[in-house]
């Protein structure tokens, strides 16, 4: 097809082996259309066999499509034209739906922003709604590892398209071993030399949520858009914040069904093994069958029974069951599905509950929470006496990232060896006397002061097994300014849904780095390199400055 400005965009089209008119499913992506996101979705022929024309298009400047690729810049207008073109393909009935994750999820939002009349529904998965807070930065800190890896991936493809052999080979090698140990890790030589036009340089330069981000973000362009949307996310996906923020906004104002599915997955793949943990047969992705049901409902007008189902499906880690909810984290009713894979989608086991509550655990310490795991305690009673722990961040040996949603690889791992470091504070509950169910946002409030103007705080919530193994559930990160004053710092952790079994314990781990998932803080507002300083933090526990973690607890019955 040709865009408004005459640029040719190429697509593969898959058709049903049947006569008649069919709806169109559209995916617009930058990674080579033959892949068709089959790393997480069924091949387009599967959807075509179920009565859909499927269009997989290379966006501008990618694959064999003409034009210059500029991150997200052309996707509103090109998306609008592509939807109109797809609606008028031979054999089309004029109704178009879109699907895809990551960049392919973003192209759905940008196309929807133009409000083409043929676009009836979208299924955005793992997206950034506000690109600054949901994608590039978290808590004001640059998401180094994921942004750098993605920038090198896109730059490598650009070099391939341009047939620049030297650049391609250098970037390909860098993609296999990320250049995280350059003099300034956030400003690697490989991108300066071989990808000077990469979006990465702009993202790094715009370290605050300014007009640059507002103009680029889908949130700015979707204010007057309303469509039925099927939102898909993962508990260990680095873009879960965007998925949930979009869902919350749309659910609050939409006249149409907004459906949410969050599995135990990282950004990819979507299956039962996530990091070092096997979440069982139920964790295998139901997305393709659910999307087929969704598209049958909204593109073919088939009554699939979908509208009679609760709209929110969350995978509960620990029980390894899908739970259904009527509203997001306002739990007026709950049902746990059968653990049988065959009955998973159709035979829920109901259990009615009251609305969820917030449970506070206060940090209590002997002052040695960095030395021994028994010295830091999480308790439901606020300590009357104020004590403190001291945390020293040495840029020579920063606390390493391991799993979670921001590291590569992402997921759930045993972090016992990290919690035993002397630059990590750990606070642990007594073994639980009953099962504990969590569903929602986790918040940590830390009273903290530093000897430097700026510092970072990383908070990780983990499940401690009876044998001592420690598996991360969720984490959050915050860059702090005005560091030399004792103030309360609020760290928003990634939302979660988990069962903590009887005999297990909960642990909060605090550190001043999580490298290379996040760019390290030099402590003095300089570029992190030769000027980076040792940072000393004091965390206050008890008394008037009581640090605590707030957990979203769901009653079990």
What would your notes on this structure say?
The protein is α+β, with helices and mostly antiparallel strands and 557 residues long. The protein has three domains: 11-133 and 213-350, Alpha/Beta hydrolase fold, catalytic domain (Rossmann fold, 3-Layer(aba) Sandwich), CATH 3.40.50.1820; 141-206, no CATH class; 357-554, Galactose-binding domain-like (Jelly Rolls). 22% of the residues lie in helices and 31% in strands. It is built from 13 helices and 26 strands. It has helices at 44-49, 75-87, 103-113, 131-136, 144-161, 165-176, 189-194, 199-205, 211-216, 218-221, 240-253, 287-299, 416-419, and strands at 11-14, 22-29, 53-58, 92-101, 119-125, 137-138, 141-142, 229-236, 258-266, 273-274, 277-278, 312-316, 321-325, 335-337, 348-350, 357-365, 376-379, 387-393, 425-428, 436-450, 455-464, 470-480, 487-500, 505-511, 535-541, 548-554. An eleven-stranded mixed beta sheet has the order 1-3-2-4-5-8-9-12-13-14-15, with helices on both faces. β10 and β11 form a beta hairpin. The longest helix has 18 residues, at 144-161. The chain is globular and about 75 Å long. The model is unreliable at 331-355 (pLDDT under 50).
Give a brief outline of the structure.
By secondary structure, this protein is of the alpha+beta class. It is built from 13 helices and 26 strands.
Note the topology.
Blueprint: E1 11-14, E2 22-29, H1 44-49, E3 53-58, H2 75-87, E4 92-101, H3 103-113, E5 119-125, H4 131-136, E6 137-138, E7 141-142, H5 144-161, H6 165-176, H7 189-194, H8 199-205, H9 211-216, H10 218-221, E8 229-236, H11 240-253, E9 258-266, E10 273-274, E11 277-278, H12 287-299, E12 312-316, E13 321-325, E14 335-337, E15 348-350, E16 357-365, E17 376-379, E18 387-393, H13 416-419, E19 425-428, E20 436-450, E21 455-464, E22 470-480, E23 487-500, E24 505-511, E25 535-541, E26 548-554
Parallel strand pairs: 2-3, 2-4, 4-5, 5-8, 8-9, 9-12
Antiparallel strand pairs: 1-3, 6-7, 10-11, 12-13, 13-14, 14-15, 16-17, 16-26, 18-25, 19-24, 20-23, 20-25, 20-26, 21-22, 21-24
